[in-house]
Amino acid sequence: MEHLLYHFCPDTLNLYGDRGNIICLKKRCEWRGISLHIEEIKNPDDARKTGSDLFMIGGGSDREQSIVTSRLAPLVKEIRAWIEDGVSALTICGGYQFLGDYYEMKNGEKLKGMGILPFYTKAGEDRLMTNLLVESKQFGKVVGFENHGGKTYHHFETIGKVINGYGNNEESGEEGLHYHHLIGTYLHGPILPKNPKIADYLIEKAFERKTGRKLEPLDDEMENKETRPFGRDFCTLNGKNI
Ligand code: GLN
């Protein structure tokens, strides 16, 4: 049975190789004999009302985010309904911020968000740029890097606690957002090849929802290889291995 993934606006939102997440999802499906069909949604008419089994929205600059917000505005109701219905979704940085009510820029000007979930993002004085390490109850150690000006504030569940880096904002010590089967995150990297548990969580929820069956595990020895103290290729901060 074919599964369908919508990749929203890859022509506009694709910072730091976020597209690599799609390759990772496709490969991990293939290795289990699951066929994953990918459709790029650049305009509202590209999407079927019935939606997809998974979707991804990558990161982008403030300007690109606001272009996409107006372009996809006609799909707000549908995207909200898909999330509520348990569709698996990964939204990264600009794509994560874009689900909220607004993004307040440094000069105080507010860019409208999609208003799909009640939260907001406000740009701070400095960009939050570093390697990000998160301890997650559900996913264990989660690694990647972050590069954003916006700080996000919400009351939803998060992915986990920030051990190194900033995450949602400097105050809360929490990273990302987890609601139904939607993961919003500041982790680029791309996130999924480095964090196979999150990749499989998204695939599993889509697969179970469609077939009622459990997902077969894969051998992740290579993905989980600890090359540095924090595992995988989590790298250096101020010249030191961390
Ligand atoms: N425009 C956003 C910010 O700088 C998102 C950047 C990104 O997607 N990396 O906060």
UniProtKB/TrEMBL annotation:
Question: Which InterPro entries does the protein's record reference?
Answer: Class_I_gatase-like, CobQ_GATase1, GATase_3, Lipid_II_synth_GatD
The answer, when asked if Transmembrane is one of the entry's keywords, is no
Catalytic positions are: C93, H188
Which reaction does this enzyme catalyse, per its entry? Answer: L-glutamine + H2O = L-glutamate + NH4(+); beta-D-GlcNAc-(1->4)-Mur2Ac(oyl-L-Ala-gamma-D-Glu-L-Lys-D-Ala-D-Ala)-di-trans,octa-cis-undecaprenyl diphosphate + L-glutamine + ATP + H2O = beta-D-GlcNAc-(1->4)-Mur2Ac(oyl-L-Ala-D-isoglutaminyl-L-Lys-D-Ala-D-Ala)-di-trans,octa-cis-undecaprenyl diphosphate + L-glutamate + ADP + phosphate + H(+)
Name the domain of life: Bacteria
Q: Which residues bind substrate?
A: R127
Enzyme Commission number(s)? 6.3.5.13, 3.5.1.2
Q: Which PROSITE patterns match?
A: GATASE_COBBQ
What are the protein's UniProt keywords?
Cell shape, Cell wall biogenesis/degradation, Glutamine amidotransferase, Hydrolase, Ligase, Peptidoglycan synthesis
- Quote the HAMAP family the UniProt record gives: Lipid_II_synth_GatD (MF_02213)
Family assignment from sequence similarity: Belongs to the CobB/CobQ family. GatD subfamily.
Q: Subunit structure, per the record?
A: Forms a heterodimer with MurT.
- What's this protein's name? Lipid II isoglutaminyl synthase (glutamine-hydrolyzing) subunit GatD
Quick one: which gene encodes this? gatD
